[in-house]
Amino acid sequence: MTRPHLRELYATSELSKTASFTALCIWNTPAMSASTECPPFRLGESRFDQGSFYGRLRHFLDVIDPRTLFVSEKRFNESMNLLDQFKNGSLPPGVTNVQLWEAQKIKQAIIHPDTGEKIPMPFRMSGFVPFGTPVVVGLLLPNQTFASTIFWQWLNQSHNACVNYCNRNATKPTPMSTFFQGYLGAVSSAVTIAVGLNLLVKRAEHFSPATRILVQRFIPFPAVASANVCNVLLMRHTELSEGISVLDDKGNVVGTSKMAARHALMETSLTRVVLPMPVLLLPPLIMGMLERLPLLRKHPRLGLPVHSMVCLCAFGLALPVAISLFPQNSQIHVSELEPEIAAATECKILTYNKGL
Description:
Layout: H1 3-11, H2 15-27, H3 53-63, H4 73-88, H5 97-110, H6 128-139, H7 146-166, H8 176-203, H9 209-218, H10 220-235, H11 237-242, E1 244-247, E2 253-257, H12 258-274, H13 276-290, H14 294-298, H15 303-323, E3 329-333, H16 339-343, E4 349-353
Antiparallel strand pairs: 1-2, 3-4
Helix pairs in contact: 2-6, 2-15, 4-5, 6-7, 6-15, 7-8, 7-10, 8-10, 10-12, 10-13, 13-15
């Protein structure tokens, strides 16, 4: 990659500001804004129905709202105090449900639920789009060299690994070797597939130069998707051998199921494949059409800013949709589980935490 390209790319660090502006437009629409008719506040629960896709979508739009990145220390402390007062039954008069839901949204965006510590800003779920978009732009730059391909794939998987670690389930200690294993597997698979496909494309003599560039733009998707699945399987493979807890309708643990673990990993892996699909497939298609316009032909320097905005929009839409596909707490019929678990409860439907 040439230095001018790098200078232009790092100039797009302004995307973080653009991301917050875009998010303001999305989250301030009537459908997404806080309503005075919101349900009664429930500490630690979601404001939206998690049994429907629309409810999960609205919930995760709150989770990834980039406006929470700009919450001041004063407002953060006020939100924490307000939630403590609610928990202790000492709320001052006049506090509304809207204020309580907003306070909980701020806390959940900043504080790790298990450790109680602040999550570094670039690795919060609310920072995934603004901090991840420059990496996506780098992945989709045309005319990649082998060195630049390896660099952007490594940077993407490193960012994903940090986000996964900082938002991990920390109720039980997990050895760092498990995360390191997942990280190495993801980087290795992403780089191997991306470089291998680039070699095949460059050796395809029947491709015209324009076709070759177009095909190369689609290479990041299979590389990233396979790396995401590899990361999930390597970091959570112990669940397949040990199983995960399944709960009845009263929240009591019925047993530990390997079958439920298999379902959880399949759902999570599918989510990780769907997520990069619009992010890495739509921008090449859109840019292929936009680059034919007279404006970009006359002003080729506009290509990178336009490309960055296309990636930002695709990423901002794809993330909440992908993670909303399946409920966080999924349900499974006892007939699909081990016989000993079916015999241990009268409930026909059990639930399990699939993870993110």
